[in-house]
Design goal:
Length: about 350
């Protein structure tokens, strides 16, 4: 409102200055004419009188046209200002009227085109949000189905077979308990070994069932809880040094947590390790993660990245721009090195 008023005053002052200059030019021209004229002259008083009347007439005209032009100009400026306010408030369907084919008319057209463009962009964003929500639901359903299939496959391939073996050994022990007591001791030993392996498999599967998100916890807090639970439920000695993982992005924290979770699951299921070491530290430009165990290891040339879990860890590392490396040797353990730029 103040800007429009200032513009109106500026127009009025412009008209007033034009009128004043016209009066001065008239008075000067009249005096020059009278000075060089050879005909009958008029007095100085009359010339001043005529000039004053001309000044009054021009002043009234300047006031009239100044206010009239300023009012019209102010009204058009106010319409544009109101339209911009409506756009800022989110009413993108509003339009400003165009009265003249001048600069303000061109500006009005540009603003109307801008409103149309913004309206189309909002529709596109809403459409993308709907599509994203649908894709997220589909991805969630697909992930749930894939996880169910994987768990069913793992249960069938490991725990189910081990339970079947336990059933067979138990039946054999029951039959041999009277006829061959010495054989029963060997069978019981085998039962204990298989039961221990089955227990490790089940713990690994339960570890996979942990939620992917961190439930509002920081990565350090979530890892501390995870390591404490493993120490309470397993006989594995876990040494952890968690440094330099503060203030990471949410995606980086989630992927690192899932990589560590997958790695610990593989250790529980396959390594037969008694010691695990987890180290995180921040170096120049990246966060480093080291995980090692003293388990039985495996031959990388024969089993190079064929494991589902190892492939998953590599893919998660690549999704956040990280470098995933694994070293393993039979009977000497496995070493995982992950570097993530930050």
């Amino acid at each position: 409102m103040n800007k429009s008023s200032n513009i109106r005053n500026w127009i009025f002052k412009s008209f007033f200055m034009m009128s004043t200059m016209a009066v001065l030019l008239f008075f000067i021209s009249l005096q020059v004419y009278l000075y060089f004229s050879e005909g009958p002259s008029i007095s100085l008083e009359l010339s001043i009188y005529l000039t004053m009347w001309l000044a009054i007439i021009l002043l009234l005209l300047s006031i009239y046209f100044g206010f009239r032009t300023g009012y019209t100009f102010k009204g058009r400026i106010d319409d544009i200002s109101t339209f911009v306010t409506l756009l800022r408030s989110g009413k993108f369907s509003a339009r400003v009227d165009r009265f003249e084919h001048d600069e303000l008319g061109i500006l009005s057209d540009e603003l109307n085109q801008l409103a149309v463009f913004i309206q189309e962009q909002v529709k596109s964003l809403q459409r993308l949000a709907d599509e994203k929500s649908e894709l997220a639901d589909q991805a969630h359903q697909a992930a749930v189905m894939e996880e169910r299939q994987r768990l069913a496959r793992d249960l069938h391939d490991s725990v189910s077979q081990q339970l079947f073996a336990l059933n067979m050994l138990s039946s054999a022990a029951q039959k041999s308990i009277n006829s061959d007591p010495k054989k029963v001791g060997t069978i019981v030993t085998q039962v204990a070994e298989i039961a221990g392996k089955a227990q490790g498999e089940m713990r690994a599967l339960l570890l996979h069932l942990r939620p992917i998100d961190l439930k509002g916890e920081s990565l350090c807090e979530a890892l501390t809880i995870l390591i404490r639970e493993l120490k309470e439920k397993t006989q594995i000695e876990i040494e952890a040094s968690l440094d330099g993982i503060e203030n990471l992005s949410k995606g980086t924290e989630t992927h690192m947590f899932r990589i560590i979770q997958e790695c610990l699951s593989n250790i529980l299921r396959h390594s037969e390790a008694t010691k695990v070491k987890i180290v995180t530290e921040k170096k120049d430009g990246y966060v480093a993660l080291y995980i090692s165990d003293n388990g039985r290891g495996f031959n990388l040339r024969e089993n190079k990245m064929t494991s589902y879990g190892l492939q998953t860890m590599r893919e998660r590392a690549e999704e956040i721009g990280g470098l995933f490396q694994i070293r393993s040797k039979e009977k000497e353990g496995t070493y995982i090195d992950l570097r993530i730029p930050v």
